[in-house]
Amino acid sequence: MNQYLVTAYDYTDEGALERRMGVRPHHLDAAKEIKEKGNYIMGGAILNEEGKMIGSVMILQFETEEELDAWKKGEPYITQRIWESVDIKPFRVATVS
Which among 17, 25, 75, 91 could bridge 5 via Cys, Cβ 3.0 to 4.6 Å? Predict the structure, then answer.
């Protein structure tokens, strides 16, 4: 499987955090779905100095670029305009023994 590092930053307008919190249950449900399919490795929120969520990091894996594209088309933080910028890079999780 091809692995990817997803780094995404939220919009910074006045209502951005409130929008994020409203969409967050849908984002977490979507993450559970891809975890069940074996595509989710790990993820979490990027925090600012005050501890408020301002973005996300995820490590995902997909067999094909088409599967990655399908995830992007269905990810609530993308479709609901929570993430202003999304950077996706090929990644490899290190095996540490």
Answer: 91
